[in-house]
Amino acid sequence: MAISKAPSSEIRALVMHVYPDGIKAFGHERLDVPLGRRGKPVKKVRFMPMAKAHELARKLQGRANTTISVI
Asked: Among 69, 38, 51, which residue's Cα sits nearest to residue 9?
C-alpha cells in the first residue's frame, strides 16, 4: 500500500450529501448539508477533531438517500 505524503490535519469537517431523487449517480441532484459537532445541520462548515468527526459519521451512516463524508 502506498503511503500518502500529502499534509494531514487532525481537524476535519462533516458533510451530509442528500439525494432527493434517491439516485446516487452522475447528473442527478445532490444537496450538500454541513453538520455541526452534535450531528445537526448548520449554515456553514464547522471543523472538529478527527476522532469526533469519524464517530459522528459512523453514527449517522445508513440513513435513506444520504451519504456522510468526512472532509
From this structure: 51
pLDDT in tens, 33-53: 999 999 899 999 999 999 999
Residue 60 host element (H or E): helix 50-60
Helix (H, G, I), strand (E, B) or coil at 56: helix
Distance CA 38, CA 52 (A): 9
Locate 52 and state its grid cell. 469526533
Domain boundaries, the chain: 11-70
Instruction: Report the amino acid identity of residue 16.
Output: M
Residue 11 · residue 48 · CB < 8 Å: yes
